[in-house]
Amino acid sequence: MDITNALSPHNLSFILEGFGVTLRVAFFAIIFSFFIGCLVGTLRYTKIPVVSPALGILVELIRNLPLLLLIFFTRFALPEVGIKLGVEYSAIVALTVFEGAMISEIVRSGLNSIHKGQIEAARSSGLSYVQTLWHIVLPQGLRRMVPPMVSQFISLLKDTSLAIVISLPELMHQAKIVIGQSYSFVVPVLAVTAILYFAINYALSLVARRLENKWV
To answer: What is the span of the domain harbouring residue 118?
Structure first.
């Protein structure tokens, strides 16, 4: 085990560059999947004829596909129909589509968890369906969505490592290249990689706990 050479300034800088790519891809995928998931989950909850069932079929289809397949699809299949994306954009799109489907189920379940009596009381007091959804259902449902949603975002961040198959220069990709220099680099490089993943995921967990305590 060669810690000194494995964690030389050059190698550490190279690994941190990959960590930056991981954070950037995860950030955009989290933002986009959150808005898509909230929209789709809410539309499914409202049970709009044709729209809600169609979205339900689409969500179930995506949720039951391997994320790796979606990554390959965005990178290698889309160019065949004229949609060419860079490696980073391919990873963001694949993660957004997959996680958006997962988030939509969390949102739908959170909204369904609100007791129907509250909705009926709000409607009988003169609030429209949209007002009831916005002022009564969503605020309460959001509190219940925070823990599973953050868990899903943590999974998303870890899933960025799957993009190594399309040569995205993220954390695991860069770590693999450094390890390729010498077998004695395996333990220290993987230890640093694990620490970086743990640090950001633990930070997300703390933020979620704080939000949950604030809203309860």
So the answer is: 3-215
